[in-house]
User: What shape does this take?
Amino acid sequence: MFRSRRPQSKWSKVRDWVWPRAGVVRASRYMMHRLARMRASPHKLALGFAAGAFASFLPFIGLHFIIAALVAAIVRGNLIASAIGTVVGNPITFPFIWLASYNLGGILLGQGSKEEIEFIPLQTSASLFTDGPVAVLSGVWIKLEPLLYPMLLGGTLLGLLCAAVCYGVVRSTITQCKAYASRRKGAVA
Assistant: This one.
């Protein structure tokens, strides 16, 4: 009943996921209104969102939702807001996040900074059958270890900074939205 007459193609769904049709500003406003409508306090919602933003800076791709939920549980933030907060890390921002976290971690570890990160191609498909999975995983670890430590250190520090900024912005925005809603509800009644 509420479907479009012309179903979207897969390409248009991917395009809308990367860059929303109504615009990024409207999509972020929608997220803020969704957060403001939740029944949790602005403090808990902001803590949850900050936990998601922090998790987006860590180099563990694919585990951001889980890390955000764990961090939100530790700081007693809202779990749903932590999932929404992981939107800070997206296909547009990840290259900048990775480069900044790698460079900051490299500087702190005394390795210096780079203008681009050289990812070593992992050729594991043929060696998986000849060497075995343990040898392949140890080879993958040897190739990824020089990238992981600087990115983890820099990502943790930048993630904490981003989480602090997100906490302040989200808490003030949600407080204003809830105050507006209560004033409006009082005017209508």
